[in-house]
Amino acid sequence: MKRYMGHLIRSAEKRVDHFLSTQVTNEKDPFYGGMKRAILEVKPTIYVMADAASVYLNPESRYYKDAALLRAMEAAVTFIANCQREDGSFDYPSCNFKSAPDTSFCFKRLIATYRLFLKYTGEGELDKLKDGYRFILEESLNALLTGGFHTPNHRWGITAALMQGANLVKEDNPELAAQLLARADQYLAEGIDGNEEGEYAERSTGNYNAVVNNAMMAMYEETDDKNYLGYVERNLK
User: How many whole angstroms separate alpha carbon 71 and alpha carbon 117?
Assistant: First the structure.
């Protein structure tokens, strides 16, 4: 992995370059803090914020602790919060509104970025970002808990996010954490829609198989149950 680290950092920096060049800075614009697009969409900003956090926190990056990038990230959090629905969900505005699966895909990037902030900052550092992310993440939990899905891979994106959410709130709100895990168990009880060749129901080697595999790995990482892989094997259809 070390041989690729420089490439990964440079690639992330290029994405952050694009983010900064397209971010709306006019506070009266509905896109303020987000990346200007043909339609009002939050997902690209959420995704690129993971890159922004990574390079901001990495001493080997030219964006390390860059003041302008910090201001841009703070504005982006405002944009993300403004795009969140009253039920905690996010839209995929070309087709899915109040979408639990798209909320789960956003949640995956949001919690990864939040965990970077927690791991690589001290007390009192980047509090505006950490508090903003925490609020958005907790608001998302209702949509994940109550929403449905449209396609087979969506269930596993939601299940992984439910388990990540449970770990997020387990100390402050153990009752909600238990509800999130119970909902995840309902999805798992349906069985894993895969076979011994690694194909899932959508039979999408180029895309959705990877989405499901990433969700499965996230579920494994979130659980302390060392028998989880055996559980998956027993429930393969």
Answer: 15
For 174-179, what is the mean pLDDT? 95
- pTM for the whole structure: 0.91
Break the chain into its structural domains and give their ranges.
Answer: 1-148, 151-237
In 3-state terms the chain splits into helix, strand, coil percentages (rounded to 5) of: 60, 5, 30
Tokens 């959508």: give the residue. Answer: 202
Write out pLDDT tens, residues 85-102. Answer: 999 999 998 888 999 999
In our burial notation (b when 16+ CB lie closer than 10 A, e otherwise), range 103-132 reads: bbbbbbbbbebbebbeeeeeeeebeebeeb
Q: Which CATH superfamily is domain 1-148 in?
A: Chondroitin AC/alginate lyase (1.50.10.100)
pLDDT digits (tens, 9 = 90+) for 120-135: 999 999 999 999 999 9
32, 78 in Cβ contact below 8 A? yes
